[in-house]
Amino acid sequence: MTPLVELKGISKSFVGVKVLDHVDFDVRPGEVHALLGENGAGKSTLIKIIAGVHAADEGEIRIGGEAMKFANPGQAVKAGIAIVYQELLLFPELSVAENIFLNHAPRTGWGGLDWAEMRRKARALLDDLDSHHLDVDAKVGSLSVANRQRIEIAKALSQNARVVIMDEPTASLAEADVQQLMTIIRRLRDRGVGIVYVSHKLPEIFALADRVTVLRDGHYVGTKDIKDVTERSLVAMMVGRSIDQLFPKEDAPIGAVLLELRGVSQGKTVRDVSFTLRAGEILGIAGLVGSGRTETALTIFGITPATAGTILIDGKPVQITSPQQARDLGIAYVPEDRGLQGLVRPQTIAENISLTVLKKLARGFIVDRGKEDSLARDFIKRLGIRARGPGQAARQLSGGNQQKVVLAKWLAAEPRILIMDEPTRGIDVGAKSEIHALMSKLAQNGLAILMISSELPEVLGMSDRVLVMNGGRIVAEIARKDATPETVGAAMTLVQEREAAA
Ligand SMILES: Nc1ncnc2c1ncn2[C@@H]1O[C@H](COP(=O)(O)OP(=O)(O)OP(=O)(O)O)[C@@H](O)[C@H]1O
Ligand SMILES: [Mg+2]
């Protein structure tokens, strides 16, 4: 069977650094081919080469058996290759139908846009993806991530894509949306579409993939049938060693209550939330996307101050109306969206990490660059940040490594209370267990950690206690010994049913 796409000996360098070194990869009709590897291994770069965004320095690309060179993404689209990016590239002000048919709208005999035909075709494409609920006239800006992703997929299909590439498509999806996306992917596969699937979530890989290809440090490690690998052997291929423990949670002495919320509300998004957080404790918050978890964090951190209730630090009521105040009270917040809130992308790694501690690094008004540099080097080593050095621009790092820089920035501030929103989203298995080990160590040193996570294994593996939120409220509190996929899952499903009834 001729592969839909075949890459041979692909190499690529950025500013003299080789990030892909003679990589082979192919996609067959009707398969899901997963592309795996640690942060910075070269996955996104490889798929951008397939999609005509980057040109390879060396190597060969064949489409349906014929050698091709794409000068731009438009040519790849014409050759039947579509890519669904992590940062979805839709136009918020345009309608669903307009976004799907942008650049290739159906025309009337007179050459004008055939709006009726466009809306009809958009409707058919969405129905085909079981997205009957999506209005073709709705503005895209008002839609959820999951819905926008469906529009991207519909757009790919409207261009007759034979290969659909997805780069970490489930990173910001709720569990129910993940299941629906998988159904859609399986349906495309059954119709002969070849899917390239990039993800750090191994359970998804085992549920979906037919074959896997692993990259390590820009090198091709191998391609295997999914039935010939185990989670353990895959991890070993990715990191070049075996990892014994995925959730290295260690017991830490639980100390005094550092943070307490009493009946805290914020508009309609946070409702009457009460809980305590103690030194040495990792408190997990589970819940669906939109359940008020992030909003609770933003309220504690003073970004959207509480409209009712009391926040206490060390048992004393405090008013937190700005992030600066929160920081002065020893609170740090690692946001879920590293792109928007966490990182100054044009600045260097060292400049980003030192942002929270500029005062400590300054001599008079001048930042001590030597100290800034050694602080950054220390974190690069502790967190295993893959970079050329402290002076590299943050935007040049791979997604997962950018996340680690954000984490380093907040740890540098030496907080007493650390709020982490999806701390390992987009982070590879090796780095993930390093970050979890670090969280354990921080807790043992007396830090109080509030961890928001959509990954159930992470919540169960790392939390001393689990809170479940929905509709802005805490609907369950479960001790570590009682927290299982069943108990936490049940609390979450119960919540879903309640939502459906409302
Ligand atoms: N435009 C660029 N300029 C310089 N270096 C780059 C550029 N784009 C990517 N790189 C480098 O190429 C390497 C591979 O990055 P890539 O984004 O392909 O990794 P990845 O496997 O997708 O990682 P992640 O899992 O973190 O998304 C990284 O070291 C990254 O810093
Ligand atoms: Mg990537």
Write a brief caption for the model.
The protein is of the alpha/beta class.
Structural notes for this entry:
- This protein is an alpha/beta fold and 502 residues long.
- Helices cover 35% and strands 25% of the residues.
- The model has no long low-confidence stretch (mean pLDDT 89).
- The chain has 3 domains: 5-239, P-loop containing nucleotide triphosphate hydrolases (Rossmann fold, 3-Layer(aba) Sandwich), CATH 3.40.50; 256-330 and 415-502, 3-Layer(aba) Sandwich (Rossmann fold), CATH 3.40.50; 341-414, no CATH class.
- The protein starts with a strand and ends with a helix.
- Helix 4 packs across helix 5 (145-158).
- A 6-stranded mixed beta sheet has the order 6-7-8-3-9-10, sandwiched between helices. The chain has a 6-stranded mixed beta sheet with strand order 16-19-20-13-21-22, with helices on both faces. Strands 2-1-4-5 form a 4-stranded antiparallel beta sheet, with helices on one face.
- It has helices spanning 43-50, 73-78, 96-101, 115-128, 145-158, 175-190, 202-208, 231-239, 293-300, 323-328, 338-342, 349-354, 358-361, 369-382, 399-412, 429-444, 456-462, 485-501, and strands at 5-14, 17-27, 32-36, 58-63, 66-68, 81-84, 163-167, 194-198, 211-216, 219-225, 257-266, 270-278, 282-287, 308-313, 316-318, 331-334, 362-363, 366-367, 417-421, 448-452, 465-470, 473-479.
- Adenosine-5'-triphosphate is lined by residues 14-15, 19, 37, 39-45, 386, 396-401, 428.
